[in-house]
Amino acid sequence: MNETSENEWMRIYNNSPGFNFTLSDSEELLLSNNNFKDSLGFNNSQQVKINDILDSGSMIYFRVHLKPLIELQEKANEIFLSFKTKEGKSLPVVLDAVRVCENDIVKIHFVGVGIPNRNEYESEIIQSRDKALKELLENTESVKLKKALNASDELIERQLQQIVEFKEQHKQMAKVLSHDLQEPLRKIGLFGSLMQNLDAEVKLNLSKILKSSERLRNLLISIQRLHAIDSENFKISNVDLNFLIENVRKKFLISNNQMITLEGEFFNFPADAIYLESLLIELVDNSLKFQRPDVPLKISVTTDYFMQNIFSETEDKFEYGKFVRIVYADNGIGFDKKYADKVFNLFEKLHLNDGLGIGLTYAKRIMTLHKGSISIASKRNIGTEITLLLPNF
């Protein structure tokens, strides 16, 4: 290139719009156009380095990210940097860069345009990005959390697969309970009832067979009923507890000597009315079975609101939610408190009677479906208190 051409090129370069400049590998400003110098307030006589004209945030970005990127890729596109103007303000510029080696001297050429109207916006984005990046790199807790979340995802997938398998088994078990086991018992009862002309001893033994058959049939019906509790048929609505209690009274024809008293403020709350009524029926049925001789049965039901940690099974995690608390109490024969954890187990019986040992298991299953809880406290010859907690959040 001759001297005239070079002068012409420099004239065009110096008068070009935008922001054009060249850096040495040591970050010294080797060349810049007039618009760049005028905007930032320096002249050719000054020795300027990049850290003199970049604001602090962009300088960190230049050293940590941009310069290594240019060295690696020999170029970079659409870079946002903020320069310090002669008025002391921040001027955001979008730039392209290319790295070249001329006569064994490494240079980085930049060309860009200023975007002053986006100054505050770009500054906030850069600061937020740098802050977020720094926190992410330094926050080891977030790394642990990510690993825990990945492990949780894998656990959830395994549990979903188990649920699919369980549902299929559930369908097959329902068929067995509703037909395959019921039909032989029905035939035993039918043919046993046809055997009339028998001597007394045979009749006695036959009656025992029929009684055992009937008990087994009732047991299967109860298991089928427990097995049939299904979330797909679960319907939440606003429930009036007074209405449910009246339905229970009518079912048992409870007399004035065996009253259910309602105490406290009764309010509507979300629940499945059919399942909740079934639960109350089980509780009253238990109270009637286990009432004290010659002592009129008294049942009280109270309600209020109760705050409790919703993460009852998760260690070191707390979030309190509002629950509806229903306390059901009777003055029956009760039991020792050491058995309190066993009464909800299937077929667990604490008393010698004709009960099947399923009622409280059924009640617990209904509360689980409500994402609630059931607990029991009892004293022998004083009575039993059962607490239901239903989520109201």
Automatic annotation (TrEMBL):
Q: Which GO terms describe its molecular function?
A: phosphorelay response regulator activity; phosphorelay sensor kinase activity; protein kinase activator activity
Looking at the record, the residues that make up the Histidine kinase domain are 176-393
Q: Which reaction does it catalyse?
A: ATP + protein L-histidine = ADP + protein N-phospho-L-histidine
Q: Does the keyword Nuclease apply?
A: no
| Keyword check for Chaperone | no
Q: Which GO terms describe its biological process?
A: osmosensory signaling via phosphorelay pathway
Recorded E.C. number(s)?
2.7.13.3
| Keywords for the protein's UniProt record, in alphabetical order | Kinase, Transferase
* PANTHER family registered for this protein in UniProt: BACTERIOPHYTOCHROME, TWO-COMPONENT HISTIDINE KINASE
Annotated protein name in UniProt: histidine kinase
Q: Which organism is it from?
A: Maribacter spongiicola
